């Protein structure tokens, strides 16, 4: 399978996950969905070698993971 097709599939999955995350009810679930979508879009951005979207997706994914960390820490 061609790398371009695989990269585009990751891009589509990433957009779908982030869209789904907007409608997720539980905050922790929403953050996990956002993180997964961010990682998929990071893979797509890396394939494109886009200097704007690569750092954007790293920050977006890190922010989602940090939110999960804060929620888990707060529950303890």
How would you describe what is shown here?
By secondary structure, this protein is mostly helical. It contains 3 helices and no strands. It has helices at 3-23, 27-48, 53-75. Helix 1 (3-23) packs antiparallel against helix 2 and helix 2 runs antiparallel to helix 3 (53-75).
Overview features:
mainly alpha, 3 helices, about 85% helix
Would you kindly provide a brief summary of this structure?
The chain has 76 residues and is mostly helical.
Helices, by number, come to 3
- The gross shape turns out to be elongated
What number is the mean pLDDT? 94
Strand content bin: under 5%
What is the topological layout?
Layout: H1 3-23, H2 27-48, H3 53-75
């Amino acid at each position: 399978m061609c790398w371009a097709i695989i990269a585009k599939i990751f891009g589509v999955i990433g957009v779908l996950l982030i869209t789904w995350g907007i409608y997720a009810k539980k905050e922790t679930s929403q953050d996990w969905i956002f993180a997964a979508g961010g990682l998929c879009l990071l893979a797509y951005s890396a394939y494109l070698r886009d200097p704007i979207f690569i750092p954007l997706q790293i920050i977006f994914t890190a922010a989602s993971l940090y939110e999960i960390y804060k929620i888990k820490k707060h529950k303890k």
